[in-house]
Amino acid sequence: MTEAPTTINEASGENAPNPSAIPANELARMTDDIVAALKTVYDPEIPVDIYELGLVYKVDIDDDRNVAIEMTLTAPGCPVAGDMPGWVENAVSSVPGVASAKARITFDPPWDHSRMSEEARMAMNMW
User: Fold this and answer.
1) Backbone region of residue 54 per phi and psi (left: phi > 0; alpha: psi in -120 to 50; beta: other values)
2) Reported pTM
3) Looking at residue 127, what is its pLDDT?
4) Considering only the top CATH level, what class is 6-124?
5) CB atoms within 10 A of CB 6
6) Which residues of the chain have pLDDT under 70?
7) pLDDT computed for residue 86 by the predictor
8) What residues contact 85, with CB distance under 8 A and at least 6 apart?
9) Domain ranges of the chain
10) What's 42's DSSP letter?
């Protein structure tokens, strides 16, 4: 028996169940490993990973283990805008069980400091 996968949805702060052919224990492991992979990607100008910065809005895993990442940047003119999606795709593609990864940049909603985790705020001394 399989359970619904969890969509990591940072924009809403909720986990959304979806029907899936991926066993629940495998999905949970993949989700944890994807988050860990996202935490290895940094904006070179900011000493905090993109996940803790709140730049990752949504991660969807389909039945074929393809991962779609919706993310943003701290600013539309970010100098690494052309490179960041590739860094994210490479990091997530390296997770065991992931067939492919595709990152898409959006600016809706725009990023602001309120999206940062407490860990990120501490690292950047932004209270």
Assistant:
1) left
2) 0.82
3) 66
4) alpha beta
5) 20
6) 1-19, 127
7) 98
8) 71, 103, 104, 105
9) 6-124
10) B
CA distance 29 to 32: 5
* 97 contact partners, CB below 8 Å, separation of at least 6: 26, 29, 30, 33, 65
> Order of strands, edge to edge, in the sheet holding 66-71?
14-17, 6-9, 56-61, 66-71, 100-105
| Strands in the chain per DSSP E | 6-9, 14-17, 56-61, 66-71, 100-105
Residue showing tokens 């492991």: 29
pLDDT of residue 103: 98
pLDDT at 117: 94
64 burial level (CB within 10 Å; 0-12, 13-18, 19+):
exposed
Cis bond before residue 23 (omega within 30° of 0)? no
Instruction: Give 51's Cβ-side CA count (13 Å radius).
Output: 18
pLDDT at 45: 85
